[in-house]
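Sample intake sheet
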Amino acid sequence: MSQVSPPTLVSPATDTTMRLLERCRRGDTTAFDEIVAQHQNRIYNLCYWMLSDPEEAADAAQDAFVRAYRSLDHFRGDCAFGTWLHRIAVNVCLDATRRRKRAAVPFSTIEGDEDQSREQEPADTAHTPAEQADRQERHRALYEALAALSENHRTVLVLLDIQGHSYEEAAASLELPLGTVKSRLNRARLALRDKLEPKRELFQD
């Protein structure tokens, strides 16, 4: 993948983060524990949507933090630390998908971890059992459709449409030009819509 400079609109690392990183570089592991605590939910969430398996996602998230810790000297603070960390996590997940043949994951393997994986969608106790069943069916369809996409399409959808990153943040995480990210997202949305077409009634009000 060609190297490009992070877009200038991506915020640089905060002073607080840089102070924590400086402590890490001096060997203070408790400082890195603080960093992990700040980012672990979103990194696990990213890995979960990318890999569709809770155990693989946990392993990938841990691997991402290990790689980040070992590469702290390469982080200069010209972009947000979370953006840099997401870039590492994306690469870890892509490495994992390349090591195995992708296949749609049965919903039974992820159903129990739904709340953990959907940090942007808290549980709604006001839903009736029928409504909850419908929502779970929609989630199953979405998981399986994402798993069937190419890794490039799955990645941009997870970063932008699921995790809510801006185009600039996604471009920095993927080390791609902004225009490439936008066009790839458009194609990914069309591909996802095509995968979901047989079950479109699940997504109609």
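Comment: The chain has one domain: 15-203. Residues 6 and 115 are 32 Å apart (CA to CA).
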